[in-house]
Amino acid sequence: MKMNNDKQKTKAAPILAQMAIYASILFVSNVISSLMPSSFPVPTPVIGLILLYMLLNFKIIKLAWVDSLGTFLISLIGFLFVPSGISLAANLNIMATEGIQLVIVIALSTIIMLVVTAYTARTIIAFKKHLQETRNKTRNTKVQVTVSHAKGGN
């Protein structure tokens, strides 16, 4: 029941406010992307996704404030990929000449991405677990010291 109360407390932002949030993130991402060295180009949408994740993770913005527009944009994603599909169909001669190379590169990059993601997640989980154990040991030590002082120990 508490979860329902939390959902009721956070109202969805108006669509224009959600658009303003996304536009602000995109603007900041564009500025950051233009400041990056040309030898290490990072696309503006990637920086925007990282910024949005950090803002949501640190609870600077609430999910309800961007959820409606995000859901709408995700529903359009198929439509947004149509131009690239048309471009691919228009350039089938490239697929005929270099199709096997492209498939191999896509397969290898997908496998590498999955392996790197798995090991990164594993490392982060292990680090969090180690950090939690360290905190628990510190708390237990403080409790033991406090108890021994209360009993008249050193």
UniProtKB/TrEMBL annotation:
<feature type="transmembrane region" description="Helical">
    <location>
        <begin position="102"/>
        <end position="121"/>
    </location>
</feature>
<feature type="transmembrane region" description="Helical">
    <location>
        <begin position="38"/>
        <end position="56"/>
    </location>
</feature>
<dbReference type="Pfam" id="PF03788">
    <property type="entry name" value="LrgA"/>
</dbReference>
<feature type="transmembrane region" description="Helical">
    <location>
        <begin position="63"/>
        <end position="82"/>
    </location>
</feature>
<dbReference type="InterPro" id="IPR005538">
    <property type="entry name" value="LrgA/CidA"/>
</dbReference>
<dbReference type="GO" id="GO:0005886">
    <property type="term" value="C:plasma membrane"/>
</dbReference>
<protein>
    <submittedName>
        <fullName>CidA/LrgA family protein</fullName>
    </submittedName>
</protein>
<feature type="transmembrane region" description="Helical">
    <location>
        <begin position="12"/>
        <end position="32"/>
    </location>
</feature>
<keyword id="KW-1003">Cell membrane</keyword>
<keyword id="KW-1133">Transmembrane helix</keyword>
<keyword id="KW-0812">Transmembrane</keyword>
<keyword id="KW-0472">Membrane</keyword>
